[in-house]
What does this fold into?
Amino acid sequence: MNKSPVNGLLMALINANVLSAQQGADLQEKARTEKQSLLETILASGVSARQVASVAAERFGLPLVDLTAFDTSDLPLDQIPKKILRASNALPLYKRGQRLTVAISDPSDINAIDGFRFSTNSSIETVVAEAPKITQMLEEALERQEDLNEDELDEDLSNLDFDVDEDASGG
It folds into this structure.
């Protein structure tokens, strides 16, 4: 069997004695064969999202945030394409100048962080949050944004004033 390099988050969980080296290798192989993210596989194995987030924050020296302190209506979602938001399981929390703060469940996911950096042309500051809470809040925020966009479109359409030229309509 080919040995894949060990993911940074997985190594942090092994070093924190949350997982054994064998469990880590098994989970990494399972994620690969089932074409699932390693984080999803770790969480499905019974490791709590809170424990994963705590270990990640400590290992990577990042703050651990409670997403319930944020209002979904204030999130800068318009800065990032929805495809990147959903694929990365990361949540932009706020933007100040050219600095975007993003909650992420796996700080070793450089591709997600780079996706945010390139799509926003901003420097990215990461904080750690629990994966299921990021997913839930992201879906709620995107749904709210879609509802607002529909309401704005309905309002714009209701404000249109059509002049009908009766001679041109054949009447």
Strands lie at 90-96, 99-104, 123-128. The two ends are 80 Å apart (CA to CA). The chain has a mean pLDDT of 85. Helices lie at 8-15, 21-33, 38-44, 49-60, 82-88, 110-120, 131-158.
